[in-house]
Amino acid sequence: MDVTLVEVAPRDGLQNEPEPVSLPDKVELIRRSVDAGLRRIEAVSFVDPRRVPQLADAEAVMAAVPRRAGVSYAGLVFNDRGLDRALAAGVDEINVVVVATDSLSRRNQGCSVEQGIERWTRLAERAAAAGLFRTVTIAAAFGCPFDGEVRTDHVLELVRRIAAAAPDEIAFADTIGVGTPDRVRTLVNGAKSISPETTLRCHFHNTRNTGYANAFAALDAGVRVLDASTGGIGGCPFAPDATGNIATEDLLYALDRMEIHTGVRTDRVIETGTWLADVLGKPVPALLGRAGTFPAAE
């Protein structure tokens, strides 16, 4: 089995840090990720820098990233202005977020769910004309910090409406880490029946220690694209207690032991996680940097 990992530490990881990381360190994180074998990297976010100052230097980051054959850089886009910036910066992919609940959508994007779908549809057409790969992420697909439970039928109805604009990929995001494997299987299987031609991707947080179980439930249901963040850093600044993503190195350990191919070198990602802890001045949540691989790497 081949699985694609999307490295999200440069965007989703760093956006939740209390202080912005320097431009050279952001570029170094991306370079290290590329050197480790990661080929899809969510590098930047083209959002209002006043709302997410940690990612205000998106254009400068994209101007400095290593451009190598087979490496695809994604940028988060919320509106037409963001897409204009993404196109000018030379991203390969865009990721447009549609939040599953009005309460979080208004805090995160300043719009309702209905307006979010309208934005996605408009951006999808423009991005397709520009030749960009287009992912739409359904955020808070498993639960909302303000509205509580999010019904499965509601999320699948969003899938149906989103799929009408022919995305290349639909991602389910467990923004606050409340999902469980049974719900993951239900959503993935439901989405496959609604839009069987669309690639599915999953983005899990380990807030309540279910992130890795959810990742393997997604694989069992047929998903072959998973997000992960080196060091396990990250979270949503607009969702209370939305702590770190599943860690790239910890996920890789299990995938490697199961002989699931990713093309990514676990040892290199461990090294990057250790380096990242020094950059941030604090330990990262990932465990593999402390425990090491088994059998121990020579």
From TrEMBL:
Quick check: keyword Metal-binding in the entry?
yes
Q: Where is the signal peptide?
A: none
A Pfam family this protein belongs to? Answer: HMGL-like
Q: Which domain of life is it from?
A: Bacteria
**Which UniProt keywords are present, listed alphabetically?**
Lyase, Metal-binding
Q: Which CDD domains match?
A: DRE_TIM_HMGL
Q: InterPro entries under this entry? A: HMGL (IPR043594), PYR_CT (IPR000891)
Residue ranges of domain Pyruvate carboxyltransferase in the record: 3-270
Query: Which GO molecular function, any one, fits this protein according to its record?
Result: lyase activity
Please name the PANTHER family in this protein's record. Answer: HYDROXYMETHYLGLUTARYL-COA LYASE (PTHR42738:SF7)
For this entry, the protein name equals Hydroxymethylglutaryl-CoA lyase
To which species is this protein native? Nocardia iowensis
Give the classification, highest ranks.
Answer: Bacteria, Bacillati, Actinomycetota, Actinomycetes, Mycobacteriales
